[in-house]
Design a protein that fits this description.
By secondary structure, this protein is mainly alpha-helical. It has 14 helices and no strands. It starts with a helix and ends with a helix.
């Protein structure tokens, strides 16, 4: 995939900030909205449109997209089991599988490489287990050290810390490397954390787990965390509240400008929301037009057709219910 970013001109410092935020927004919208909602369908249709030209040209392979889907599922399980105060239950893991099965279908990703594609999966847990197993095998097969992989890390990691000095950049690279296995670290030409950083991160993570489990009360509804805005603003657009070094789609406000997190980021060189006028689009984003400048605002007809198709396919049934019915029928016959 890093080769694709290089070919399309998206793998450079000028475009990296916006590309990362646009991708994050589309993923968050698809992950947090009901499958039968307009926002979910718009997010999925937008991703399909942005991928379509590269899939048609053979620059994005079906296996690449299946790997991306599997990597998303893997990271959910890995991060929660590793970082949070409890691991996911079997029911929650099954839900992760059902979600990624539905999302993959909506993104038109073939599941043919998976072992049980022909026979079918028993449930979400069965599906996500096979998907993750295939994803790890695919990484070992294709993830080799390349110049574009090294460039990817330099654009998205090194450029964010280039004003903080080489030592900070080296430290951050090793922190990032701590969340990767040997295959991906080698592929991205990124360093292993080493015993000191590993011990430091281990202590921080386990201290956080203890604090969350024994000292943190459940949040009331009005303090609940929302990864995307729940309602549009006065312009009919959605603002993004997840701050970064470039405040794309962040509306200037007292909190977005002077919150502890925002102030800390600016100490390290982050832009203030609303700086440079409309450069970072503080009015918000539109799911029907979001994307790289060459594709911005294009694809309305293709998206409309995709949304109409999704509306007509139905969403209420479990994707694995047919498999269960077939098994029950076979048992009855036997």
């Amino acid at each position: 995939m890093s080769k694709l970013f290089a070919v399309t001109g998206q793998n450079n410092i000028r475009n990296a900030g916006r590309r990362a935020v646009d991708t994050e927004i589309l993923l968050r919208e698809s992950q947090t909205q009901p499958r039968d909602s307009e926002r979910y369908m718009d997010a999925v249709a937008r991703m399909n449109y942005l991928h379509a030209r590269y899939r048609k040209a053979g620059k994005i392979l079906d296996a690449d997209l299946l790997h991306t889907l599997g990597d998303g599922a893997l990271e959910i399980l890995h991060i929660i089991d590793k970082e949070e105060w409890r691991e996911l239950s079997d029911v929650e893991k099954c839900a992760v599988g059902i979600f990624h099965r539905n999302l993959g279908e909506d993104l038109e990703i073939p599941f043919t490489p998976l072992k049980s594609f022909k026979s079918g999966w028993q449930d979400g847990s069965h599906f996500v287990t096979e998907l993750i197993e295939w994803t790890k095998g695919y990484e070992k097969e294709v993830a080799k050290p390349t110049a574009t992989g090294d460039q990817y890390v330099r654009v998205y990691v090194d450029s964010a810390t280039n004003k903080m000095g080489k030592r900070v950049t080296a430290f951050i690279r090793r922190v990032v490397g701590s969340d990767l296995d040997d295959t991906m670290r080698t592929s991205l030409c990124i360093e292993a954390p080493g015993p000191f950083i590993y011990a430091l991160l281990f202590a921080i993570r386990n201290t956080r787990k203890i604090l969350l489990r024994f000292l943190m009360l459940p949040r009331p509804e009005f303090l609940a965390y929302h990864s995307v805005a729940s309602v549009p603003n006065a312009e009919g657009l959605y603002n993004f509240s997840h701050g970064g070094f470039q405040p794309w789609y962040v509306r200037p406000s007292l909190w977005s400008t002077w919150s502890p997190g925002a102030a800390l980021l600016r100490m390290f060189g982050a832009r203030k929301p609303g700086s440079k006028g409309d450069r970072y689009k503080p009015t918000g984003y539109d799911l029907k037009t979001i994307g790289p400048p060459p594709q911005e605002g294009k694809g309305s007809e293709e998206m409309r057709a995709a949304v109409e198709f999704m509306k007509g396919r139905g969403t209420g049934e479990c994707p694995f219910s047919g498999m269960k019915q077939r098994k029950d029928s076979d048992l009855a016959k036997g």
